[in-house]
Amino acid sequence: MNNETNKDSRKILIDIKNLKKSYENGQIKALNGLDLEIQRGEFVSIIGPSGSGKSTLLNMIGALDVADEGSINVAGIDLLNTKDLSKFRSEEVGFVFQLHNLIPNLSVLENVQIPMLETSLSSKEMEERACKLLKSVDLEDKINQKPTKLSGGERQRVAIARALVNHPSIILADEPTGSLDSKTGDIILDLLKDIHQKENVTLVMVTHEPYVAQMADRTITVRDGKIQEDTMKSN
Ligand SMILES: Nc1ncnc2c1ncn2[C@@H]1O[C@H](COP(=O)(O)OP(=O)(O)O)[C@@H](O)[C@H]1O
Ligand SMILES: [Mg+2]
What we know:
Elements: H1 4-11, E1 12-23, E2 28-39, E3 43-47, H2 54-61, E4 69-74, E5 77-78, H3 86-92, E6 93-96, H4 108-113, H5 123-136, H6 152-164, E7 170-174, H7 182-199, E8 202-206, H8 210-213, E9 218-223, E10 226-232
Parallel strand pairs: 3-8, 3-9, 6-7, 7-8
Antiparallel strand pairs: 1-2, 1-4, 4-5, 9-10
Helix pairs in contact: 5-6, 6-7
The protein binds adenosine-5'-diphosphate (ADP) and magnesium ion.
């Protein structure tokens, strides 16, 4: 029998309790007892001053870094007590960074295929999936180019296609428009928003621009390694 409690706990995709992370032998408290719950399908923006812990938080959610204390559960996985997180990283999470981290000597198509190399897909299936995603971000005519030949906005669209390749449940975007002019930035934001709506993917995006943050359903303010404010959009 299903009760409400069970239903609610299944909707919570990211569950963080009293998370702590320090650097430099404890002198820098990047996360200082942070609590956060994010439900499946939400679009959350994270704002806060530089150095407040936003990127550290995102890296913890994506298992790119390990916390010192507390608990962090993402998509049912206890990240501090699971040894091999490579499957989690490649299947549950897609990352989009400020600087896109594309590999310069691989083609656009090859870059997008990288996260699929660890899956059991055939090379034909990988190529088809990558082409389909590159088409969806309007780059089908650039698939054989090297990333160095592309504009900033085009590179970020490649990074978004790459992030989506394994059907992740979460997209983590750290200042995805930070290195772009505002017009190109808006195209990238529209694309992310569109993906959030169509693919029902959970989107967690760090930004320092208030107007970008306002696009989300919910805005979280981080300060001194903790949540200072948590506001749902009212409309
Ligand atoms: N790998 C690291 N080594 C040392 N200090 C770090 C490291 N990563 C982050 N920090 C420090 O932790 C704090 C939080 O950093 P960060 O999460 O990057 O902040 P934000 O993304 O909000 O600007 C800052 O003081 C930063 O200098
Ligand atoms: Mg940062």
